[in-house]
Amino acid sequence: MRYIPALLIGLAAVSCSHKNNDETSRFHEDGRVKPSVAVASMLDTTTFDASWSLSEELTDGVMNLVSNKGQIFVHARQESPFTDNPFGTDLSWMKREFHSEEFVAFLELVEHDFVPVKTKGVPLQEASSNLNMSVRLRVVDLRHATPRIVLQEMIRDSYFVPKTLIPNDYSVDVWGTEGFRKTPMGIAHAQLVQDIASRISDYILLAKSR
After folding, report:
1. What is the distance of C-alpha 143 from the center of its chain?
2. CA distance 53 to 49
3. pLDDT in tens, 39-57
4. Which option is the CATH number for 34-209: 3.30.1490.20, 3.40.50.10610, 3.40.50.720, 3.30.457.10?
5. Is 104 exposed, middle or buried (0-12, 13-18, 19+ CB in 10 A)?
6. Strands (DSSP E) along the chain, which ranges?
7. pTM of the prediction?
8. Cα–Cα dist 63/59, whole Å
9. pLDDT tens across 113-171, in order?
10. What residue segments make up the domains of the chain, in order of their start?
């Protein structure tokens, strides 16, 4: 039992340090407050079967890139508590659910498929493929009495995956491993996340400047 106080002190120190870092990251070096955004957990409406959560992977990737740019404060990801359609016409509920934010970004993965590249004389099972991905993106400005959409678009990426003698085993090279980052899917996801993060950052900074 004599170790418990030391453990509690350690946990308190870590918690305090995290809080201080969190508060510090809200400001630019000159003291100006950064615009804040909540990135809701990505909705995954595809039927793609992966051994990990594509939603968690892509959401975390987008959040990290937006945050690492240093221009926008991004809150820690939480499971989306809302039941309303984030891509519907009713935006009124967003201020209630995200009352402490200036902006909120919603994402929906609507396509994630390996599509064989048709080559004359080559059976489909032996052909190379394209990893086609589509993400619906909506960024909403919550600074006003009525929420306003500042960005709404479909982001589409396609990554060529050549046929190899030894195919990638994504039950081994899973998200979070060094092996995954080098796979076609890992490279394709990094490209997609970069595109999404850039769009979110650009439009929030543009809206904030007006």
Report:
1. 22
2. 9
3. 999 999 999 999 999 999 9
4. 3.40.50.10610
5. buried
6. 36-39, 43-44, 73-74, 103-116, 129-141, 148-161
7. 0.83
8. 6
9. 999 887 666 555 567 899 999 999 999 999 999 999 999 999 999 999 988 767 889 99
10. 1-32, 34-209
